[in-house]
Amino acid sequence: MVVETLIRVDQISFSRQGKNILDRVSFALKAGEFMTLIGPNGAGKSSLIKVILGVIRADAGRVHKASGLRLGYMPQRFVGNEFMPISVLGFLRLNQRIERDFLYETARLTDIEAILQRQLRALSGGEMQRVLLARALLGRPNMLILDEPAQNLDVNGQMHLYQLIQDIHQQQGCAVLMVSHDLHRVMKESTQVLCLYHHICCMGQPEAILKDSQFNDLFADQMDELMATYEHHHHHCHDD
Fold it and tell me: Are 148 and 34 part of one and the same domain?
């Protein structure tokens, strides 16, 4: 069975104010895959996401999208206008027509049923991220793009959100492209890891990435903790 390629990024280069942000970046994401994009701050991760979304235009290269592609996007953060009263429900319906049953089904899935009537400006960080995830799902995407979705959450909030993303990926079968700094979570959930530092340093399955010298150089300060956690998790799986 041939698995459909949803997007193919082909030799994308992008610079700003004379500085090279992306240098001949190429990769493909197939239906059902969970790819995590990692790299140091300033490596070009958010710029790559914006090129894929069509928000910014690359200097060279192309992004090929499958004809049936339905993208759902969750930004790093969203700050509602404190002077504009809008409820969570109003925000979810903003600029789109959604079947009522599907909207409430998505609210249940993302654990926001209880806050639908609350004002957007009154939400906690974790609640806001779940609302953004719900809005991304309302277009019935077959690919989700998540730009550091758990960056501003506490540890419990991060774990809750990552578990939710994992459940959605498994239950709905949509492909996921997620930018993350959380290496432990990356190694646990991803089918593919792409390590970016303006160019692609390495790419592959988590087990292979851990052995890559460029990956080890970039994340040297986190490697001891990461290896201990990952080896324990990996060993535990074999014992089951």
Answer: yes
Side-chain-side CA neighbours of 228 within 13 Å: the count stands at 4
Q: Are 76 and 136 in contact (CB under 8 A)?
A: no
Residue 102's nearest CA partner among 156, 73, 138 is: 138
Adjacency order of strands within the sheet including 199-204? 71-74, 143-147, 175-179, 34-38, 192-197, 199-204
| pLDDT tens readout for residues 139-179 | 999 999 999 888 778 888 888 888 889 889 988 889 999 99
- Domain enclosing residue 102, as ranges: 78-140
Closest CA to 69 of 28, 117, 38, 100: 28
- Residue 26's pLDDT is 96
Query: Which residues in the chain land under pLDDT 50?
Result: 227-240
* Per-residue buried b or exposed e for 188-214, using 16+ beta carbons within 10 Å of the residue's own CB: bbbebbbbbbbebbbbeebeebbebee
- Is residue 219 domain-shared with residue 164, that is, in the same domain? yes
Identify the CATH number of the domain in which residue 25 sits. 3.40.50.300
Q: Is 67 helix (H, G, I), strand (E, B) or coil?
A: coil
47 and 147 part of one domain: yes
Contact 150, 161 (CB under 8 A): yes
- Does 100 share its domain with 130? yes
Q: pLDDT value at position 39?
A: 84
Tens of pLDDT, residue by residue over 175-210, are 999 998 777 666 677 889 998 989 998 888 877 777
Q: What's the pTM value of the predicted model, to 2 decimals?
A: 0.85
How many CA within 13 A on the CB side of residue 57?
Answer: 1
How many structural domains compose the chain?
A: 2
| End-to-end CA, the chain | 30
